[in-house]
Amino acid sequence: MNASETRTVKHGAAAGEGGRPARADWTVDQGWERYEPEQHGIWKTLFERQTRLLPGRACDAFVDGMRRLPIGADQIPDFRRLSEVMMRRTGWQIVAVPGLVPDEVFFEHLANRRFPAGNFIRRADQLDYLEEPDVFHDVFGHVPMLMNPVIADYIQAYGAGGLRALSLGVLPHLARVYWYTVEFGLVMQPDGLRIYGAGIASSYTESLFCLDDPSPNHVAFDLERVMRTEYRIDDFQETYFVLDDFEELLALDRTDFAPLYERIRRQPELQPGDIVAGDRVLQRGTGAYHRERRRGAA
Ligand code: HBI
Ligand code: FE
To answer: How many domains is the chain built from?
Structure first.
C-alpha cells in the first residue's frame, strides 16, 4: 500500500514523458503476452503454497469466489478473462496499473467498480514479502472477494468515501478502515474464525500468524474504533478486527462522514496493540511477537 525501496523491475512501460503516466487514469495494458516462463513459475509457486494453506483458513466467500474465476496455478491470469466473469457477477472489472497509483486515482477507479491491479510479479527472492502490490497480491488476494456482492458494494463505497475524505482532509482515518477490513480483516463463521483480507490471504506467513499465533489481539469490528487505530505497514498486525457478517461493512455507506470525523478527531488515537474500554475482545493477544521485535530493534 505504500512506496517501497524494493521496487521490482516492471515489465510493462509505465511512465510517459517526464515520469508522468501515459494515460491520465494510470492504466496500462497488462501485457499478458510478455510474461516470461520464469514469471509464470513464480505465480505457480505462490499459488500452490497458498492454496494448500487456505482450506479451513479462508472464509467461504473467498473460496467460492476463487472457484468461479479463471484462476489456476499454471499461469498468471489474463485480466480480460477475469473481468468478463466478474462483470457478469458483480459488475466489477480489473484494470492493469504499473504499481501504486495516487490516492485520488485509486479511489476514482474503485468508485467506478474498476479494481487497479499491478501487472508485475515479485522476484523469486521476494516470495514472502514486498510492500508494493503485485499481480499475486492483487489478483489472488483481492479478486475472489470482489465476486461477493456485499464486498463488491463495500469497496465501491470505499472509493466514493475516499474521494469525500480527501476533500475533508481525513483520508488517514478512512484508509485505516480499508486496511483493517479489505486488507487484514477476519470474519467469524459458524465453523470458526476465517480470513477475508487480501493482505493476509496473499501472505503465507501472515495467514498462519493471524489465526494460529497467540500474540495478536482479535477484536470485534467497530467502524469508529477502527478509524482511531494506527496500523503497521511493515510487519504483521498486532490487532485483527473481526466481523460477524459482511453486512456490517455497509455501515460505511450509511454513515454521514462529517460528524463522524468530528467525533473521532476529539478522541485519542490508538496504537496498533491497544485494547480499550468498549472493545469486544475475542482473543487478548500475548503481544509476545511484537515485544520480541521491538527488543531486537532496540
Ligand atoms: N494503488 N495500485 C494501488 N493499490 C492500492 O492498494 C493503493 C494504491 N494507491 C493508494 C492506496 N492504495 C491507499 O493508500 C489508499 O487506499 C488510501
Ligand atoms: Fe491490497
So the answer is: 1
Mutate to test the pocket of ligand 1, among 106, 145, 178, 179 (most ligand atoms within 8 A of CB): 106
pTM: 0.93
Ligand 1: residue of 10, 97, 101 to mutate (most ligand atoms within 8 A of CB) is 101
Tell me which long-range contacts 90-95 makes (C-beta under 8 A, separation of at least 24): 90/146, 90/147, 90/148, 90/149, 90/152, 91/152, 92/146, 92/152, 94/138, 94/139, 94/143, 95/25, 95/27
Per residue in 206-253, pLDDT (tens digit) is 999 999 999 999 999 999 999 999 998 989 999 999 999 999 998 887
The verdict on residue 205 lying in a domain is yes
Residues spanned by the domain of 202: 32-297
CATH number of the domain to which 113 belongs: 1.10.800.10
Residue 56 domain flag? yes
23 is a domain residue: no
Q: Residue 143: CB within 6 Å of ligand 1?
A: no
| Cα 100 to middle of ligand 1, angstroms | 6
What is the average pLDDT value for the chain, to the nearest integer?
92
Residue list, CB under 5 A from ion ligand 2: 133, 198
Is residue 193 a part of any domain in this protein? yes
